[in-house]
Design a protein that fits this description.
Layout lengths: L5 H7 L10 H11 L7 E8 L12 E4 L11 E4 L5 H6 L4 E3 L1 H8 L7 E4 L4 H4 L3 H4 L17 H10 L2 E4 L5 E8 L4 H16 L11 E8 L5 E2 L4
Parallel strand pairs: 3-4, 3-5
Antiparallel strand pairs: 1-7, 1-8, 2-6, 8-9
Helix pairs in contact: 2-8
C-alpha cells in the first residue's frame, strides 16, 4: 500500500462529509490546501447527464473563454498560407509555417501544444490527422482553431481558452485557474464555466444537465459542491 505523506494526511482532515458547502467555501479551502511549491491548477469535475453514443452524436465538445483566463501557458503554432505568415507572427504565435510546417508535422518533429489552421490549409493537414488526433492537436472549427482570424484565435488560446469534452460515462473536467489566482477570480471563472456547460445541454435531455460538481487542486483532495 502506498504510504501517504504527512502533508496529504493534514489535507484529509479538511475533508467535508454530510454537509453542503458552497463553491466559494470550497475554493477558499482548496487555496489553503494548495501548499506545494508550484502553482497548482484549480480544477472542476462534473458528472453530466450525457453519455457518448456509439456514433458520438451525444458528446459535448466545445471551448470556454474564462473571464480571468486559465493560467495555463500554451505554445501555439499557426499553419497558414505563406502570405499570412507575417500576420501569424504578429499575433503572438510561437511557431508559424506553411508547407514547411506540414513537413515537420508529417515527420513527427514538432513541439507545440495548440495548432491553429486557416481553412485554406485544412485540405493539406487533414491527412495527418493520425499524427495530430491522438495528441489532441487536430484543428477543429468548433474549438476556434480553424479560422481566418488568426490574431483572435492566438490571443484567446494565450489568455487561457479551455476545451471541454465529456468521456463515455458523462464525466467532464477542466481547469478554472491556478492557486495564485484570487478567490474572487476563481469563483468568477467557476460560475462562468458552469453556466457555459449548462448552455450546451441538448434539447433532448430532460431534467438537470449537471448532476454533480467537484472542485480540487493538483495535489489536493476533492470537495463536492453542495450549493452555489
Amino acid at each position: 500500500m502506498k504510504k501517504r505523506s504527512k502533508r496529504y494526511k493534514e489535507i484529509l482532515k479538511t475533508a467535508v462529509k454530510d454537509k453542503k458547502i458552497t463553491a466559494k467555501e470550497i475554493i477558499d479551502l482548496v487555496k489553503v490546501n494548495s501548499n506545494s511549491k508550484f502553482d497548482e491548477s484549480i480544477d472542476v469535475s462534473l458528472k453530466i447527464n450525457l453519455k457518448q453514443s456509439k456514433g458520438g452524436d451525444l458528446s459535448l465538445r466545445s471551448v470556454v473563454n474564462l473571464p480571468n483566463g486559465s493560467g495555463k501557458k500554451s505554445k501555439v503554432a499557426v499553419l497558414c498560407e505563406p502570405e499570412k505568415i507575417d500576420e501569424a507572427k504578429k499575433s503572438g504565435a510561437d511557431i508559424t509555417g506553411s508547407d514547411d510546417l506540414i513537413e515537420k508535422i508529417a515527420a513527427g518533429k514538432f513541439d507545440f501544444t495548440k495548432l491553429v489552421c486557416t481553412p485554406a490549409m485544412m485540405g493539406k493537414i487533414g491527412k495527418h490527422g493520425k499524427i495530430l488526433g491522438p495528441k489532441g492537436l487536430m484543428p477543429n472549427p468548433k474549438l476556434g482553431t480553424v479560422t481566418n482570424d488568426i490574431t483572435k484565435a492566438v490571443k484567446d488560446i494565450k489568455k487561457g481558452l479551455v476545451e471541454i469534452r465529456n468521456d463515455k460515462d458523462g464525466n467532464l473536467a477542466s481547469t478554472i485557474g491556478r492557486k495564485s489566482f484570487s478567490s474572487e477570480k476563481l469563483l468568477e471563472n467557476f460560475n462562468y464555466f458552469i453556466e457555459s456547460v449548462k448552455k450546451e445541454k441538448p434539447d433532448t435531455i430532460k431534467g438537470e444537465f449537471i448532476k454533480k460538481t467537484f472542485i480540487t487542486s493538483t495535489m489536493g483532495i476533492s470537495y463536492k459542491v453542495g450549493a452555489n
